[in-house]
Fold each of these.
Amino acid sequence: MKKLFAALLFVLAPTVSLAGGHSGLGGHGTGMTMNVETMQGTSGTLVMQTTQDVWMWETPPEGFPAATTATCNQFIALGTTPQPIGGAVVCRAVDPDGDVFMNTGVFQADGTVKFTNVAATGKWAAYIGASWIGKTETQIGDKASVYSFTPTN
């Protein structure tokens, strides 16, 4: 089971990447796993993992916070091996000013996660439709990771 969680975290840590940024609004984050739920089938396993993350923007526009917290839920499908066969992520955040944003992510074949901002208010509203690629940089045991996110548009 420990190998399963390690494999999941390696692939999923980028899921903690965030939403909300056009060209140049990238950064890095940390994720701490708070809860894991597993549903075992006869030919595979479904896992839901909840993380508490801190997102740190590299060059935030004026008036934007340099960092914010987020809660992410990762949904992972596994076949007969510990390698994920697919997955999706939903991250939601309220920044220090009270503006909200939400993004969704889809696992990519190369182990990254592509995130898209799907809902936002206030200063983040202009970033609806913006997307990032999240990549795990460091896996810290079974329950924590450090990742980066790079804007794609």
Amino acid sequence: MRRNSLIEAKDIALRVAGVAKSKKAQRVLALDMRKICTFCDYFVILSATSLKQVNAFAEAITEDLAKIRIKSLSKRDSHNDSGWVVLDYSSVIVHIFFKPLREFYSLERLWADAKRMRLPRV
């Protein structure tokens, strides 16, 4: 199991999902990847309705985790217009999609064997 600081990967994934939901992200999903891959423990996947919102969600998540001294391993352009931002927290990988791109890439179908985590209501 990988560790990011002293906080468990599951707690990071749940925190990211909570931030995303509180900012009104759509279709927030957390997948437990531990039994099906070796490069991370959890995926958090969420959708935005605009490119501007994709970047706003990424900024909110980055700022929230920075408060507890957790920083992404990936560098990101704050004006990314690709429609897909990936934040790499080693044990937790966050995928923030513009809605049409999420439907196109369909990571939840690609990783269908992963167990879906129960997320608390916000």
Amino acid sequence: MPEFKEAIEGFVNSMSKEKPVTRRTMFFGGYAKLPTGITAEELYKVVGVGLEIDPATGEIVDADCTLATSTAKKVFRQLITGRRIDADMRAIVDDLRAYYHGAAQKALITALRAIHEKYRATCLDPTRGLTEGPDDDDGTTGEGNEG
């Protein structure tokens, strides 16, 4: 059992050496119905898109989606990370149309548009501050609020 103890200690030590977070990001989720008959639709019924966004700049720091293949997920991530969700939205959609030719193309674009609207309402609405907490909830729920 000493090997197990050493492995646990090594893991704990590596966790304490991780770099601290240097900026605050926000998670946004969006969903759209998938076309019938594709693998992702059989698995999930809808496509889920999750974006990690820097609220100060709108930069998409990371992205993921519930597509069935790792290649489709990789291409999606490559097309949108590093872009700005607000300023580059038209170019993102154009690139998805030009370079992503999977059956879920329209669903991905619809889910991204839902995220774009959430981002605009959350980060660009001057009447709503980024410091609102759980006590400021208006009692409504929106899709994609889970992490």
Amino acid sequence: MHDYRSYGHGKYALHYHLLWCPKAGLQLQGEKLEHALQQIIADICRANHYEIVALEVQPRFIYVSLSVRPTVAPADAARTLKSMCTVRLLQLYPELKKHYSLYGSFWKKGYLISTGRIFNPDVVWKVLDE
């Protein structure tokens, strides 16, 4: 049935779907960069006790489905992932500093958060195109 986890004296089953997009000019097509981002996200999630349910790195977006403790707000998880990805990318790829200095960020402002276990990609693209 449900995959409940324990935290303190309670049980929970929280799933957040997070999606954010790179700014124009940041090329995520390279297999090396995609793999690095997947590893970076996995490391950040492990350090913050987020369990990755699904992870997809595409040229147009990054999608992560997480199971998190009830003390974690979805916006906090999104901000943590976006900011820590930036820091780690700059450490791994110093050549990206030029892009960062030109655009001020790797990511477009904002993110999409959906809760629950059901995720519909068609709805996501409608929201992103608005």
